[in-house]
């Protein structure tokens, strides 16, 4: 994670003042890559892609079980982790809920590395699916996990993605959003505010309050939205179809 921070995040943070003034990420200045293609900048070489995947997955070894236990997920036998990267969270999921199967959905370049280099692919309860979650058909499932995905995108793109998830979701199924939640008034916690600034310099998105997640999930069709703070870095929001 530190290597990723040094080679990518820090390069963007050098342009913090412009990011704040312009209200957008700084990939063009940092890497000469247009802001709409944020994952092209992060994945600008196979080495960088692998490093990002390794850096991101480590937190789930520490906090995966806590965040997945925030709600009882045992009623959901088939779980699809959208933007699931290396499959580390899916691995934590099948270990906590042995009766479930998990599909890890991500873009082809990430799925191919996940299968070659990460251990989730050795678990027969976990399968991988390549695709673009904004365009391609999503696998049918009982529960969709979106962990650190919505914070990458604008409200408009989140709405589009959530509508697609709602359509693919089995009746009675649900969605679990895993993010670091801002306080109701948006003025803390400090770590989450710093993450939000990190999202400004690196993505199109930001961290959000529970009310802001409700405002995205409700219009997409989801009901019964419940938010749980875990006391750790990441929190959980569960909603039902
Ligand atoms: C910030 S990472 C989070 C990864 C993982 N969920 C986690 O929490 O460790 C966002 C993930 O979304 C994936 N992603 C980005 N755009 C995507 C798209 N259009 N379709 C599918 N996956 C995408 C990225 O490859 C990456 O794995």
- How many beta strands in the DSSP annotation? 7
The CATH architecture would be: 3-Layer(aba) Sandwich
**Count of helix runs:** 10
Helical content stands at: 40-55%
Class per helix and strand makeup: alpha/beta
Regarding CATH, which class? Alpha Beta
Mean pLDDT: 95
Radius of gyration: 17 Å
Distance between the termini: 35 Å
| Anisotropy-based shape | globular
**Binned strand content:** 15-25%
Describe the structure.
The protein has helices at residues 2-13, 16-22, 27-31, 38-42, 46-68, 88-96, 108-117, 155-168, 190-202, 210-220; strands at residues 78-82, 101-106, 126-130, 141-147, 169-179, 223-228, 235-240. The chain has 241 residues and is of the alpha/beta class. The protein has one domain (2-240): Vaccinia Virus protein VP39 (Rossmann fold). A 7-stranded mixed β-sheet has the order 3-2-1-4-5-7-6, sandwiched between helices. The radius of gyration is 17 Å and the shape is globular. The structure holds S-adenosylmethionine (SAM). Catalyzes the transfer of a methyl group onto N-acetylserotonin, producing melatonin (N-acetyl-5-methoxytryptamine).
């Amino acid at each position: 994670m530190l290597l990723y921070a040094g080679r990518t995040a820090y390069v963007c943070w050098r342009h913090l003042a412009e990011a704040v003034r312009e209200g957008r990420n700084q990939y063009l200045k940092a890497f000469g890559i247009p802001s709409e293609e944020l994952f092209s900048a992060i994945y600008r070489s196979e080495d960088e892609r692998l490093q990002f995947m390794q850096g991101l997955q480590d937190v789930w070894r520490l906090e995966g079980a806590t965040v997945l236990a925030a709600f009882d997920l045992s009623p959901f036998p088939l779980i699809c982790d959208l933007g699931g990267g290396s499959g580390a969270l899916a691995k934590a999921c099948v270990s906590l809920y042995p009766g479930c199967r998990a599909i890890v959905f991500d873009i082809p370049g990430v799925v191919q590395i996940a299968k070659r280099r990460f251990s989730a692919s050795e678990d027969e309860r976990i399968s991988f699916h390549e695709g673009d979650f904004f365009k391609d058909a999503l696998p049918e499932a009982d529960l969709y996990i979106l962990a650190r995905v919505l914070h990458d995108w604008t409200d408009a793109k989140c709405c589009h993605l959530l509508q697609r998830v709602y359509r693919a979701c089995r009746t009675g199924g649900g969605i679990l959003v895993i993010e670091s939640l801002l306080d109701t008034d948006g003025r803390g916690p400090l770590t989450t505010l710093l993450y939000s600034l990190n999202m400004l310099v690196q993505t199109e998105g930001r961290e959000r309050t529970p009310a802001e997640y409700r405002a995205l999930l409700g219009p997409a069709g989801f009901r019964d939205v419940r938010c749980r703070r875990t006391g750790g870095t990441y929190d959980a929001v569960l909603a039902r179809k």
